[in-house]
Amino acid sequence: MVKICCIGAGYVGGPTMAIIALKCPAVEVVVVDISVARITAWNSEQLPIYEPGLDDVVKECRGRNLFFSTDVERHVAEADIIFVSVNTPTKTRGLGAGKAADLTYWESAARMIADVAKSDKIVVEKSTVPVKTAEAIEKILTHNSKGINFQILSNPEFLAEGTAIQDLLKPDRVLIGGRETPEGRAAVEALKAVYAQWVPVERIITTNLWSAELSKLAANAFLAQRISSVNAISALCEATGADVTEVAYAVGRDSRIGPKFLNASVGFGGSCFQKDILNLVYICECNGLPEVATYWKQVIKINDYQKSRFVNRVVSSMFNTVSGKKVAVLGFAFKKDTGDTRETPAIDVCKGLLGDKAAISIYDPQVTEDQIQRDLTMNKFDWDHPIHLQPMSPTAVKQVSVVWDAYEATRGAHAVCVLTEWDEFRALDFQRIYNQMQKPAFIFDGRNVLDADLLRRIGFIVYSIGKAL
Ligand code: NAD
Ligand code: UGA
């Protein structure tokens, strides 16, 4: 029986290992983490992350061949294959601050592996890391190896939150990069054999280490670039009378372009797009490629522009001031079907409105008040550094209230901002909402999920992204 250990029980480590355990009953899978709270939650009825379908998979495998533990060293020592899926945030200080990846967590995991290993190991980079990280990890492991053989593989993860289980069950591809030596190839084959339990072999791509590492950064950059492209066009649509939904549809019907990832929005969020592009920009700069760096930086600039454009639209539509006005925010998570708020555009939009002294009432079906207050008081890039994952600070933002119902959030409000595309928002009784709002009643649909014509018939003044007013 092969034993797999995964260091890091987060959004990637938890679901990925649950699927491996589900599909490979002969493999023992242990997910370890230094966070006692996280492991306790994984072992409870209330899992630490919300992901459709995850509960069922965990219930089926937990205690059978899937285990969650804080006994990091023991399970690392016993494992044949070790996945490392720790956070790789943006550095907040020192060389490369605000851009480069902070590999502190990765390095400490690697040193611990070297310390406790007593037999040969395959060490798999699951975290998204800068290209060439495997070289650094190899150095740490081999210089501390005590004669043990370590093979490093890069196996980046492409799942998206909210659809993680489906993405893992039916991935477009699994990517495995390894050293082009007999030992390296054997390690690649060993990991391939795990995935081949459920992924068709033609979908398992093998490459050299650097191609695998760079492909992950490139894939995220390409995806984010599509959103910034359509968002840039959305500004032009508003200026010209074109409709961004029609333009995106017409453009996406070209089979060379394709229809996915062309939804104009208030901006992309999530823990990775910005972090990974900044990381790519930094690597380009370090490799003497300033033009390439500038090209990718622009994807982030347009995303920031889109968020501030949205705030400006809200304030300017409401007679140039939201001071003292109640604004209902529907949706705080960075996308639907997740409770994750990392880098959500809602943070920047709320901070922008608070800057203009609005009183904000927020409703999100999956995000807690603690989380929202923490997000609104935290500095840029601090969120992914565990030292900051503390209980809510005493200086909670007073102009913000968090409620557990969309009707409560909109009661007496001057405006509604839709910032996450939760399905339930489409089904709201907007006549009821209109009746209880101040007039004129504004709706700013940052996700283009509402029926603007219907809302206008009710009496709302409606702003949708990339559409005529
Ligand atoms: P996360 O913050 O949810 O989880 C990381 C976990 O690692 C935390 O629970 C932390 O306590 C733990 N950890 C940190 N250092 C440790 C150590 N030395 N020993 C044991 N545990 C340790 O992060 P995540 O969202 O799962 O992302 C992990 C990596 O995967 C990142 O590099 C990210 O870029 C990448 N990724 C994320 C997604 C996603 O959708 N979230 C998708 C693909 C790739
Ligand atoms: C993204 C990628 O899709 C995954 O392949 C990758 O593994 C992951 O990042 C990662 O490396 O972390 P995720 O961030 O979970 O996944 O979610 P996405 O569906 O990509 O959405 C990201 C953001 O873009 C969200 O805020 C979403 O609302 C926004 N978006 C997405 C748009 O504004 N328009 C679109 O057309 C699509």
TrEMBL record:
It comes from Spirodela intermedia (Intermediate duckweed). The keyword NAD applies. It is an enzyme of class 1 (oxidoreductase). Pathway: Nucleotide-sugar biosynthesis; UDP-alpha-D-glucuronate biosynthesis; UDP-alpha-D-glucuronate from UDP-alpha-D-glucose: step 1/1. InterPro entries: 6-PGluconate_DH-like_C_sf, NAD(P)-bd_dom_sf, UDP-Glc/GDP-Man, UDP-Glc/GDP-Man_DH_C, UDP-Glc/GDP-Man_DH_C_sf, UDP-Glc/GDP-Man_DH_dimer, UDP-Glc/GDP-Man_DH_N, UDPglc_DH_euk. Belongs to the UDP-glucose/GDP-mannose dehydrogenase family. One of its GO terms (biological process) is UDP-glucuronate biosynthetic process. It holds the Pfam family UDPG_MGDP_dh_C. Gene3D superfamilies: Cytochrome c1, transmembrane anchor, C-terminal, NAD(P)-binding Rossmann-like Domain. GO terms for molecular function: NAD binding; UDP-glucose 6-dehydrogenase activity. NAD(+) binds at residues 8-13, 33, 38, 86-90, 127-128, 161, 272-275, 342. Keywords: NAD, Oxidoreductase. It catalyses: UDP-alpha-D-glucose + 2 NAD(+) + H2O = UDP-alpha-D-glucuronate + 2 NADH + 3 H(+). This is UDP-glucose 6-dehydrogenase. GO terms for cellular component: nucleus. Residues 328-452 form the UDP-glucose/GDP-mannose dehydrogenase C-terminal domain. Its EC number is 1.1.1.22. NCBIfam families: NDP-sugDHase. The active site is at 272 (nucleophile).
